[in-house]
Design goal:
CATH class of the largest domain: Mainly Alpha
Radius of gyration: 40 Å
Number of domains: 5
Shape: extended
Largest sheet: 6 strands, mixed
CATH architecture of the largest domain: Up-down Bundle
Structural class: alpha/beta
Strand order of the largest sheet: 6-8-9-10-7-11
Helix content: 40-55%
Bound molecules: adenosine-5'-diphosphate, magnesium ion, zinc ion
Length: 653
């Protein structure tokens, strides 16, 4: 409670900061005004001034305390500047067309005598000694204006963020930075494919329903649960569902909103939030993206006072609140490894609930949840769609269903068909079809052979997923064509070394086909190369699958849930050796792919021809032609071999 008061230096107080800034601004403004005024006049030296008097060129002189303003005699009709030059001349004339000069004040006994002799009018401004008015004009007024501007600015800003409070509120933060929903309207039925997470959260729901049951036994409920998982898997949705199931208010706030420009604000927001929530208990506080404040404090790179104070305050509050009232804090993050250890210790976010990307069944269930909101034709098959979307998170699936509905509208249909759904999958994976990009005949040929190369490598090898579709219709995300593979049934969670090697072969087979048929190398293989290389590298550095390095873990992934970069854990020499090994594996696979294509050259030509004509062929059609060609080849072989085929059959079984 009081630790943030202790280390709040006056300079960190927003109000003091504001005052200092406005005073400086006022000084600069005044200085600018003065220099602007003197810019309009022309400076001359004192003896030039006296000469001018003697020559009778001067009309009037005003003697100020530190400066003498000199008004020359008006110019004659001819030399009198026209109005336009008057304006352009920068105001060095007054309204009687007298040119204005000025010079510094020097104590000169003879000046008055000289002026009298030359019959020059002279005067000195009456000093209206009114220091109060003066002070108000030069200080209070500009300060007031700046204050007003600032006030309006902060008002509109905090309004947009959904709270009241003005500048005075910054320090104490009466501004509400959180959302409060009395009923979220979301239940566990809206969350699919997260059964384990739901199970863990069920207990919290039960507790919120009936805290006294737990109290009677003396069981303490966890104060906080941490939802961990990749983006879009339904963490926010789950937290809302807990509140919905328990029928309690839901306070939500994003971690980044805590951290403000002014030190101390986040901390007071935390305090405020917990105070409000305690008044409404039982209820749920949800802190989204908690890594924004909960970052480990020992990172040497930068210290952030504000974040640390906010975190400290959060830790304090989590220890302080009376959990028997039924206040539960749920937080979500996709970077659990950077969280401060203090946040994770018992009594704080000690429950960690993993929200993973859904598996096949989970995806089907999620699709079922979202398909309810759209009108569908009876032919839809969500199982097929789930098969095609391995690796997609809940948010992606929701997006695909919506995309399918949009497509149905575009096509002028009343219901969503299976075709819409499958097209939506491809749109999310590969981008929209780009019908206006015309490939030249030659390019079309190359792309076709490239794709059929992938497909053949898939068909010939054992450890691969079957081809679902081959197309050479360009997509907006850059692919000129692609071969879609789809698992036959249940996806598997383990990948064997053979499968990885076969997959690499499939990836390099595109280029192998180009080179075999046209003897060229095109840029179309760049994505294949990238994926093949990273597979080969992971195989060696992370999965312990190379004979050379054995099980050594040579790299590790930094942000597991954000597809993070891998960091190297080995010496420079080993890195070089790894690179060499990766290159060796890729070369080997490329040779294998070339061999496969050479052995199936007849199928390659036939299918590519078909693809050039039809632009898209399905997996079944592909297998049909492939089998046709194969059996034709076999009968031909038999005819050629004639009598000596007995040799092969006579091999020992
Ligand atoms: P996160 O907070 O994990 O990034 P969200 O909870 O914000 O993800 O999910 C975004 C949207 O994706 C949800 O509003 C919902 O429509 C959909 N979604 C995600 N996961 C699921 C799921 N398991 N079941 C149903 N819908 C989901
Ligand atoms: Mg979220
Ligand atoms: Zn390719």
């Amino acid at each position: 409670m009081n630790n943030d008061k202790q280390n709040r230096s006056p300079f960190k107080n927003p109000l003091v900061m504001f005052l200092i800034i406005s005073v400086i601004a006022t000084i600069i403004l005044n200085a600018a005004m003065i220099s602007l005024q003197s810019l309009q006049k022309e400076e001359i030296s004192y003896n030039e001034f006296t000469t001018m008097i003697d020559e009778g060129k001067i009309d009037e002189v005003i003697i100020n305390r530190d400066e003498i303003d000199i008004y020359a005699k008006p110019e004659t009709e001819e030399t009198k500047p026209t109005d336009i030059t008057d304006i352009l001349g920068g105001g060095s004339y007054d309204r009687h067309h007298r040119k204005i000069y000025y010079t510094g004040y020097i104590y000169d006994e003879k000046l008055l005598e000289r002026l009298n002799n030359a019959q020059v009018k002279y005067s000195t401004p009456v000093q209206h000694e009114n220091p109060i008015l003066d002070f108000i004009l030069t200080w209070i007024l500009p300060l007031g204006i700046i204050y007003l501007l600032f006030f309006l600015l902060t008002r509109t800003m905090s309004k947009r963020m959904g709270g009241g409070g003005g500048i005075m509120g910054i320090g104490q933060s009466n501004a509400k930075m959180y959302n409060m929903e009395n009923a979220t309207g979301v239940t566990f039925n809206d969350v699919a494919g997260q059964d384990e997470a739901k199970e863990s959260l069920d207990e919290i729901v039960d507790y919120l329903h009936n805290p006294s049951k737990y109290k009677a036994i003396g069981a303490k409920q966890p104060r906080g649960a941490l939802l961990v998982g990749p983006p879009g898997t339904g963490k926010t949705l789950l937290a809302k569902a807990v509140a919905g199931e328990a029928k309690v208010p839901f306070f939500s706030l994003s971690g980044s909103e805590f951290v403000e420009m002014f030190v101390g604000v986040g901390a007071s927001r935390v305090r405020d939030l917990f105070k409000q929530a305690a008044a409404k208990a039982p209820c749920i506080i949800f802190i989204d993206e908690i890594d924004a404040i909960g970052k480990s404090r020992d990172s040497q790179l930068s210290t952030n006072d504000e974040r640390e104070q906010t975190l400290n305050q959060l830790l304090n509050e989590m220890d302080g609140f009376d959990s028997s009232k039924g206040l539960v804090v749920i937080a979500a993050t996709n970077r659990p490894e950077i969280l401060d250890k203090a946040l994770l210790r018992p009594g704080r976010f000690d429950r960690r609930i993993i929200v993973e990307k859904p598996d096949l069944k989970g995806r089907e269930d999620i699709l079922k949840v979202h398909i309810k909101h759209v009108k569908t034709s009876p032919d839809i098959n969500l199982h097929d769609m789930a098969l095609a979307t391995s690796g997609a998170a809940g948010a992606d699936l929701a997006n695909m269903v919506n995309e399918a509905a949009l497509r149905a509208v575009r096509m002028g249909r009343k219901t969503v068909s299976q075709e819409d759904l499958m097209e939506a999958v491809e749109v999310i994976i590969a981008g929209k079809e780009k019908k206006d990009r015309i490939l030249s005949e030659k390019e079309k040929k190359i792309v076709s052979f490239h794709e059929v190369g992938h497909a053949l490598a898939t068909a010939v090898q054992k450890h691969t997923q079957p081809v679902h579709k081959i197309t050479i219709v360009p997509r907006t995300m850059g692919a000129l064509g692609y071969t879609m593979q789809m698992p036959e049934e249940e996806e598997h969670y383990l990948m064997s070394k053979d499968e990885i090697l076969d997959q690499i072969t499939v990836l390099v087979a595109g280029r192998a086909a180009e080179e075999l048929v046209f003897n060229t190398k095109t840029t179309g293989a760049s994505n294949d190369i990238e994926r093949a290389t990273s597979l080969a590298r992971n195989m060696i550095t992370m999965y312990g699958m190379s004979d050379k390095f054995g099980m050594a873990g040579l790299e590790s992934i930094q942000n597991k849930y954000l597809d993070g970069r891998s960091v190297s854990n080995c010496s420079e020499e080993t890195k070089t050796a790894i690179d060499n090994e990766v290159i060796r594996v890729l070369k080997e696979r490329y040779e294998k792919a070339t061999e496969i294509l050479k052995n199936n050259r007849d199928a390659l030509d036939k299918i590519a021809e078909c693809l050039i004509n039809e632009e898209t062929i399905t997996g079944e059609r592909f297998m049909e032609i492939f089998d046709e060609v194969k059996s034709a080849r076999e009968t031909k072989d038999k005819e050629n071999e004639g009598g000596d085929d007995g040799e092969k059959n006579s091999e020992p079984k």
